[in-house]
Amino acid sequence: xxxxxxxxxxxxxxxxxxxxxxxxxxxxxxxxxxxxxxxxxxxxxxxxxxxxxxxxxxxxxxxxxxxxxxxxxxxxxxxxxxxxxxxxxxxxxxxxxxxxxxxxxxxxxxxxxxxxxxxxxxxxxxxxxxxxxxxxxxxxxxxxxxxxxxxxxxxxxxxxxxxxxxxxxxxxxxxxxxxxxxxx
Length: 184
Hints:
Blueprint: H1 2-7, E1 12-15, H2 20-32, E2 40-41, H3 55-70, E3 76-89, E4 95-106, E5 112-116, E6 120-122, H4 124-133, H5 140-148, H6 155-159, H7 166-183
């Protein structure tokens, strides 16, 4: 029932970021799902390090962005997107690092819907170099761009030789998160 009603109304969506890549990813996911909206970005602090590490910090950043985007406005859905690094210790092997995004959507009633993007493996060398410079101000993406070229906001494309972009991973995750919302 919600999804039928939902298609007849233009959804008010605010993205907790002024980043045009994130706003564009939200618009594309909404287009895929036939959700009538024009998402609006609003600069909101994630209140976490420039390079979040671990699911808890990534989730906190995404939640803070969604909450700030919603800012208690009636009829507004807030979306927070935060990328970060997750470490995986394989038995008998070295630590592997993955960049993943956490997506948090807070609906009009204050309920939240959470999902993650596909993770892209980042070589340990770049993660360790960013850590040495300080995750408070230095991202792994900036180190990858500095050493290999490419965009600081899309190291995914650089690492995968152009086969997977950050935009693609965000759209995939946003489709999953938005489907949770509209199935409510």
